[in-house]
């Protein structure tokens, strides 16, 4: 049982000497987790996503690192980028594969464990302030048991020239593995950063990744954040990403889920100042008995902010997709513009989509639209292509690729987009 | 080239075509006219292979092959081109990529090597010039955000690229202003080479001022009830369709 693994892990932390009063934080988080327990389908937010197949398993939190991991890294499309790399295997940093090419020493790109020692002020100021533990069992669990992850700090007025790739590998070659990475990203006023957060897996055993990422964007900051999930095999992931935006910030986020047995993404934006832009784009391509669940929440807490959300799915086999898009327009948030769309193409009669827009609007002068579609490929388009001599299978692929690439192209690294397009093409 | 014998078709159990007979020889231009609901669009849909129509009788041969037995893509690769009344917008697929795929699929079908990228671009440039196509249109997604006129011109441009033996134009004139009509017609006329045949389906005579037909057929209640030369179209323009309807009813009662 997963719970036993967790309890055993937690006891270990009790005896460790950690900087600051971290044990108290862990204990409070663990108490919250114990109070809540694992989410079940009785929770409204987890209605379609059953974690039982995960919680029934036994996992190990540590595992030695195999050379296989080097091959996997080198074969990946992300490793081809000119970028800063932080590579983690089962949640532990791999120094040999990590590489920082950014020249400016005031920019910190390191492991979270390192930051807890060397950048305590920044850590204490931001850690756990945005991704709440209260009522969030999986966040509480991550906080109680966190060991490492990525830490990026961009001081005021700086541009990080190269993307920061947070490269996660689950190595389940020997046994079932559990990793709980924790990332903290602080982008101060007028600074710019691009993050590529990516997930791979190897081995035939099961892996569970329960990751939390907190991103703070200071006034006029610009953050590009891309999440690419392609964990093939018996891989489970719960991903919680929280953005906290001060005034005049721009955040462009793209989630591509191309593989994974069960993936639950929680993507939250909180706009804490005026004139924020939040862009949320997602693509999921599912097959077999996979389940991909995207829960998003955009909090328009201040006036004059803009959010645009578009999630697209292509479902094959017996797979299931869940989309739940919550937009909260707070009482103060006049002149809010919020748009949301969720489109799904079912390529199999056995695939299922559960889609739900959830708009809660407390201000009276706002523009909000939402729309959800579930269907097959457009017959008119298919006939048009076929009537020009393009065979059915080629026409279908042309249309699906066009549909998917629309989202991939929201990523502003052309060489990555090109490689991803090939990858997506191969999946269709 | 095209031989239609006693063609009958229906949609959702409703009989639309009740025995069409038509022979089109190489190089000929045939106009098929008729009032609304006569079956004009059904005829083009059945010839192109649209799945929602059921053929209930008759046969169609195209250069000796059974056209009705072929998939839409095979009909196209054998040399049939349908210019759509409402061309579809396809976001994310560029006109260039689309045409390259279509041409190379046709070549594959005919046992030819694919056209190389540079040869293709040169070929496309030539046809763009011939059709007076704006370069910007080919780099955009297929028909996306195109005006009605641009869409129809794009149809004729595609025709020029795919070099069909037989083109069926389904109410290409609908929704076109006079300038667009002239451009589209000029494009079609440039493609006439004495071998290529055209079936021009239209409600109005005005398109036929620009694309002059060798034969004009009037379709009514799913049958060709009258055939003649270009002067028949003029007569229809002057007198409307009512006299034809009356003639048909009289024959039926006699």
Textual characterization of the structure:
The complex is a heterodimer of chains A (428) and B (254). Chain A has ten helices and 20 strands. The mean pLDDT of chain A is 94. In chain A, 24% of the residues lie in helices and 39% in strands. By secondary structure, chain A is α/β, with parallel strands linked by helices. Chain B has nine helices and twelve strands. Chain B has helices spanning 40-48, 72-78, 95-109, 117-130, 135-139, 148-162, 178-191, 230-239, 242-253; strands at 2-11, 14-24, 29-33, 54-62, 65-66, 80-83, 90-94, 141-142, 166-170, 197-202, 215-220, 223-228. Chain B has a six-stranded mixed beta sheet with strand order 6-9-10-3-11-12, with helices on both faces. In chain B, strand 11 and strand 12 form a beta hairpin. In chain B, helix 2 (72-78) crosses helix 3 and helix 6 packs parallel to helix 7 (178-191). Chain B is globular and about 65 Å long. Chains A and B meet through helix 8 and helix 9 of A and helix 2, strand 7 and helix 3 of B.
């Amino acid at each position: 049982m997963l719970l036993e693994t967790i309890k055993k892990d937690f006891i270990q932390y009790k005896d460790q000497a950690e900087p600051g009063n971290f044990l108290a934080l862990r204990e409070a988080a663990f108490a919250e987790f114990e109070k809540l327990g694992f989410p079940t389908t009785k929770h409204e937010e987890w209605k379609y996503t059953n974690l039982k197949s995960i919680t029934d398993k036994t996992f190990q939190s540590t595992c030695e690192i195999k050379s296989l991991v080097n091959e996997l890294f080198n074969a990946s499309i992300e490793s081809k980028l000119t970028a800063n790399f932080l590579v983690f295997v089962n949640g532990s940093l791999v120094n040999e594969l990590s590489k920082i090419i950014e020249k400016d020493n005031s920019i910190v790109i390191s492991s979270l464990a390192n930051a807890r020692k060397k950048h305590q002020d920044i850590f204490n100021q931001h850690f756990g302030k945005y991704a709440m533990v209260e009522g969030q069992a999986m966040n509480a669990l991550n906080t109680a048991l966190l060991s490492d992850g990525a830490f990026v700090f961009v001081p005021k007025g700086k541009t990080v020239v190269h993307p920061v790739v947070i490269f996660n590998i689950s190595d389940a070659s020997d046994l079932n593995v559990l990793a709980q990475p924790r990332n903290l990203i602080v982008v101060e006023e007028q600074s710019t950063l691009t993050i590529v957060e990516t997930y791979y897996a190897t081995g035939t055993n099961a892996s569970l990744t329960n990751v939390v990422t907190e991103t703070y964007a200071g006034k006029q900051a610009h953050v590009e954040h891309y999440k690419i999930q392609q964990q093939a095999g018996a891989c489970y992931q719960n991903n919680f990403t929280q953005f906290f935006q001060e005034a005049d910030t721009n955040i462009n986020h793209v989630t591509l889920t191309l593989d994974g047995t069960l993936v639950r993404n929680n993507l939250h934006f909180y706009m804490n100042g005026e004139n924020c832009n939040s862009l949320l784009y997602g693509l999921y391509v599912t097959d077999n008995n996979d389940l991909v669940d995207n829960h998003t929440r955009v909090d328009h807490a201040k006036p004059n902010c803009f959010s645009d959300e578009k999630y697209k799915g292509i479902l094959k086999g017996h797979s299931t997709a869940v989309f739940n898009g919550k937009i909260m327009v707070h009482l103060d948030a006049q002149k809010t513009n919020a748009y949301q769309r969720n489109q799904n193409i079912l390529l199999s009669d056995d695939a299922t989509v559960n889609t739900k827009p959830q708009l809660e609007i407390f201000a009276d002068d706002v523009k909000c639209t939402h729309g959800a579609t579930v269907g097959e490929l457009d017959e008119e388009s298919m006939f048009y292509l076929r009537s020009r001599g393009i065979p059915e299978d080629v026409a279908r692929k042309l249309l699906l690729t066009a549909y998917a690439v629309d989202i991939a192209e929201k990523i502003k690294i052309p060489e990555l987009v090109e490689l991803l397009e090939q990858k997506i093409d191969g999946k269709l | 080239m095209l031989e239609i014998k006693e063609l009958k078709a229906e949609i959702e159990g409703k009989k639309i075509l009740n025995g069409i007979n038509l022979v089109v020889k190489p190089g000929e231009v045939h106009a098929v006219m008729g009032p609304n609901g006569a079956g004009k669009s059904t005829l083009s849909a059945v010839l192109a292979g649209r799945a929602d129509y059921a053929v209930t009788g008759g046969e169609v041969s195209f250069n000796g092959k059974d056209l009705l037995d072929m998939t839409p893509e095979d009909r196209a690769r054998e040399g049939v081109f349908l210019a759509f009344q409402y061309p579809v917008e396809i976001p994310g697929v560029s006109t260039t990529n689309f045409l390259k795929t279509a041409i190379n699929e046709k070549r594959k079908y005919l046992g030819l090597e694919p056209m190389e990228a540079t040869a293709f671009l040169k070929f496309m440039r030539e046809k763009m010039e011939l059709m007076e196509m704006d370069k910007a249109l080919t780099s955009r997604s297929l028909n996306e955000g195109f005006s009605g006129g641009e869409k129809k011109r794009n149809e004729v441009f595609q025709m020029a690229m795919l070099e069909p033996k037989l083109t069926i134009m389904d109410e290409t004139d609908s929704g076109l202003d006079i300038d667009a009509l002239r451009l589209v017609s000029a494009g079609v006329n440039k493609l006439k080479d004495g071998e290529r045949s055209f079936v021009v389906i239209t409600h109005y005579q005005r398109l036929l001022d620009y694309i002059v037909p060798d034969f004009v057929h009037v379709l009514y209640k799913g049958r060709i009830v009258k055939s003649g030369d270009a002067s028949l179209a003029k007569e229809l323009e002057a007198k409307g369709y009512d006299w034809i309807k009356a003639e048909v009813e009289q024959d039926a009662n006699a």
